[in-house]
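Summary for the steering committee. The consortium agreed at its last meeting that each partner would contribute one worked example illustrating the joint modelling workflow. Our contribution is presented below. We chose a case with several input lines so that the handling of multiple components could be demonstrated. No manual editing was applied between input and output; the record is shown as generated.
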Amino acid sequence: MSQETNILVVDDEQVMRDGCKRILSKRGWRVTLARDGQEGLDGLKNDHFDIILLDLKMPGLSGMEVLKEVKRIDPEVLIIVITGYATVDSAVEAMKIGAYDFISKPFSPDQLTIVVNRALEKKRLEQEAELLRREREKSLQDIAMEKSKIRTIINCMAGGVIVTDRESQIVLNNPAAARMLGIHDTHLAGRPLSQCIKDEILNQLIGDIFTCNNSVPSILSRELVIGEKNITHLRAHAGPVRSDEGEILGSVIVLEDISHLKELDRMKSNLIAMVSHELRAPLAAIEQQLMVVRDGFAGGITEKQRQIIERIKERSDGLMAMIRNLLDISKIETGQIVQKKESINLNDLLRSVSELFTSQAANKRITIRLKEGKGIPLIEADQSTIEVVFNNLLSNGLQYTPEGGSIELKTTLEGDYVKVDITDTGIGIEPEELPKIFDRFYRVRSEKTRQVVGAGLGLAVTKAIIEAHLGLIEVKSEIGRGTTFSVLLPRQVEGPVA
Amino acid sequence: MSKILLVDDDPDFCEATKIILESKSYEVSIAYDGIEGWEKVRTDRPDLIVLDVMMPKKDGYEMCKELKTDQEYADIPVLLLTAVAENVPTTRYTTRMGMEIEAEDYIDKPVEPIELVKRIEVLLSK
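What follows is the complete predicted structure of the assembly.
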């Protein structure tokens, strides 16, 4: 109570009045006195009282009548009746018609104080209860507004939303969800989730959310295929719905239509395949004819002519490599880079890759050496893409190594990885360039590298392939002395060794 | 001397390859698609077929599958010319659709003349 406690004492005896005032004022309460019932009632018209001390036995308007009247005027006032010597009957009578308490004469100051305090406590509690009630009313109203706000929001969302309880029964959904799932009914509440989303794994994962509290990742994602004839591709994101105390109340599933993305992917793959063929086929024919002339099948040629043709073939090889790298980049972007994993013996693979470069190496009088480590375990990898890795690295080595140099390929076992070091005696890479060489389209441009063919994609693709296999690539280099690329690939678990 | 049938839709590639093989005294005939290819198979009965995968009308996959399921011609060795990866030897070929085509050998084009000749010799000696 922010205001001062206001007490009215109605008693015809002056001694009583003064006594009460004295006792109650000591407590800091404001006390107003009235000589009889009428004065008391008049007082009520002007002031608000929290407590009225009312003598029952008064001349004129009796206590009972005053009591009834007070109750009529201000039902909230707490009335304590003062009864005569040892008469409880009238007190009971008074309480029946609305008095809160009674005190019988004679009473001590303490007794009076206690009774009044009790009444004030009651008032205080009543007021608190009223406050809480109003708060609650407001909150419920707010929630109802929130709920309808939330409803409006989710109903307008393009994405599908489904909320379930702990038994995976749907409690809330928006029309978009029903539409995406191909269900005509827009209200799915009451249905089990598994009836609407027929993906076993998703249902299992959501069930797991409810059983294991914390070990499940906070949001899980899964692609769904809906329908048979007109297929829709959806991506579902699901997570727990928690109460304020952190208890899991249910789950929420958000659905995203990715059919158009799938279609774009498909179109892109088709386009890429077509472009790939259209670019490669003519190049293949060009190179085949070049080789025929170079090797003298179409008649004798001079050494100079042979050299020029060899150079043409090199440029054309570069174009082929660039086409393949561009295709690989688009595969990386669509996450298709690791297609099929099998057990691979790296020593064998390196041997066959280096064999492909024998004539190119011979032209620059560069020696390619293989140091095959013993006891090298097999790795689990996609053969064609791993071949691309070493193809790129070896090709780079040859490009950046001047005549008469050498390239060494060494395999070793390093912990759980098979390590391949490719060391050349090439021109080396400047320290400030080293961090950038794996960037797409990054090419070192200097007088020494003018003759080099390529768009700068080889190392980016190489790194992406290695990382897709959960491996690592590192590089060390010294200008004028050479470069070593180290490729680490995880060994196959429980496999035989080479 | 052995008869080789070369089926490929690129005339320049065919001419270049023909020159290489004829230098080793092979008898080479050419077809530009799968349909022509089948005609030549029936009339000439080659000892070896070099078959390009990407061709109009009837491509290499189809023709190879048909050859291998036809009892009369299944025993003719087939060397598939693939476009899997540039300059990378593969010992089996998986199409984009994931089907495995069973041919006797696969080689990527363009192919070094020496390599081509060597592979053909191996196939014919079996």
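The first strand of chain A starts at residue 6 and ends at 10. Chain A is about 45% helix and 20% strand.
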